[in-house]
Write a structure and sequence with these properties.
Elements (H helix, E strand, L loop, with lengths): L7 H10 L11 H12 L51 H27 L37 E2 L2 E2 L11 E7 L3 E7 L5 E7 L5 E5 L2 E3 L2 E5 L5 E5 L2 E6 L2 E7 L2 E4 L2
Antiparallel strand pairs: 1-2, 3-4, 3-12, 4-5, 5-6, 7-8, 8-9, 9-10, 10-11
């Protein structure tokens, strides 16, 4: 029931403000006042029902911080040293490779020594005889005397070539020596004034001794039982048979006692 002189909007504001259900009332006095003022000016107050605010939650005190007693700072220990890696073991393949390398180096060293002392085997394959063909005859002794070596030939002493079979016996002395790229040869004189020849092939160490050497020009010559002739001259060692030259080896070094 509306009172005369009161508009509908204002009546609605009053009815809402006095509602039995608290949830249907205005949430605050300010909200009620604004609604009444709007109703007095004739403005509709279609304001949604504001539910009653729940009881405020009591503030929660911030968590307290636990106080610790002050202690000296202890530095962290240094990191442990890395463990030494175990010694590497060589595999079987590496050991075999190392052994092969050593063998090759040894072979190269031997070949180099042969080339140095022989000067390279440049003789023709067709030559049937060299300064010292294979023989099982007696070899020169290594006994030395107090005599002086012949000048002009390296690797010699008072008895001939050191470390080779081209040497004179202890009761003989060198009369002449020659070194070529293939051979070593020496003419030895005995105490009776006789001469004998001793030659050695550098390639394989084959050696030969022949008695009955005679002088020939500035050098010496001798013919073996097989007909091979050896001419030892200051410039060359010549080996021939059957009237043809089997080998002509230029002298690398030559020396004479004369």
């Amino acid at each position: 029931i509306l009172r005369r002189g009161v508009n509908r909007t204002f009546d609605d504001v009053v009815a809402r403000g006095m509602a039995k259900d608290p949830r249907e009332r205005y949430g605050t006095a300010g909200e009620l006042g604004r609604a009444a003022d709007a109703a007095a000016q004739g403005i509709p107050t279609d304001v949604p029902v504001t539910p009653v605010a729940s009881a405020p939650v009591a503030p929660v005190a911030p968590p307290s911080t636990r106080q610790f007693t002050s202690t000296p700072y202890v530095p962290a220990p240094p990191p442990p040293a890395p463990a030494a890696s175990p010694a590497r073991r060589f595999g079987r393949g590496q050991l075999m490779l190392g052994a092969a390398t050593v063998a090759l180096l040894a072979a190269a060293a031997v070949l180099a020594m042969v080339l140095v002392f022989s000067g390279g085997d440049t003789g023709s394959g067709s030559q049937s005889r060299l300064a010292a063909p294979p023989s099982s005859s007696s070899t020169g002794t290594t006994t030395t005397t107090t005599g002086q070596p012949i000048e002009g030939v390296s690797g010699t002493d008072s008895q001939g070539f050191v470390g080779h079979t081209a040497r004179c016996d202890s009761d003989s002395t060198p009369a002449a020596m020659i070194r070529t790229s293939l051979s070593l040869a020496i003419i030895c004189e005995t105490g009776d004034g006789e001469y004998y020849y001793r030659g050695e092939r550098l390639r394989d160490g084959a050696n030969r001794e022949i008695q009955g050497v005679t002088r020939s020009g500035d050098g010496f010559t001798v013919t073996g039982p097989d007909g091979a002739r050896y001419d030892v001259q200051p410039d060359q060692l010549t080996i021939s048979s059957g009237g043809s030259v089997d080998s002509a080896e230029p002298a690398l070094e030559y020396g004479s006692a004369d």
